[in-house]
Amino acid sequence: MGKAFAGKVALVTGSTSGIGMGIARAFAAEGADVMLNGLGEAQAIEAVRAGVERDFGVKALFHGADMTKPAQIEELVRTAESKLGAVDILVNNAGIQHVAPVDEFPPERWDAILAINLSSAFHATRAALPGMKRRGWGRVINVASIHGLVASPYKSAYVAAKHGVVGLTKTVALEVAEQGITVNAICPGYVWTSIVEKQLDDQIRVHGLPKEKVISDVMLAPQPTKKFITIEEVAGVALYLASAAAGQVNGTAIAIDGGWTAR
Q1: What is the DSSP string of 36-95?
Q2: Residues with catalytic annotation?
């Protein structure tokens, strides 16, 4: 039985760790060649890249585009097209976070979060769409957040950016709906990743609670299952959205939140 994405190329931003790496490996496991992008030590990044090739027998490249730089984002897409042949599946996953009351929020952190979490998705999508249109097929998958649908205090920039990602998703989906391209967003609740782990100290500080109470009473309080979402669960939804079965799923924001938004 053939692999679902053999012959396809997936570009996943922010894929050297966490959700992005899980999604990239999931597509590679189904036969896609992958373009990785993200931060980290060169040796660790090479281990991730080589591991994808070794484990799945596909081509895996890395491009260190800075997601705050539009020209570098375009170069990332063009490099994937020239060296791998196309960008069939674009997963806009890169993201950062900062937690602080809005009147204490550093303006430079606001600018960085908007650039990386929202504007980078625009720049990558803008660069990848012409090739998708020429081929008459494409999948754009934006990793938003449950905070693209609801808000939490102390996360003004992140919530604003992720709401923007959901709006961008809907708009582009309408523009390309007749061209064999779908555009959707995944909105996970709390997934245990390094970005969430790094939030703990900030959350402890702003809420004045110990670590265990922050996890139970702040992070997991709105998730009725009281469990962190797994990277594998998010990757599974990405695979579905790129599949033939999801050909008519377009412009949606799929919540993976343990029931958070059912309240």
Answers
A1: E---S-HHHHHHHHHHHHHHH-S-EEE----TT-HHHHHHHHHHHHHHHS---EEEE---
A2: 158
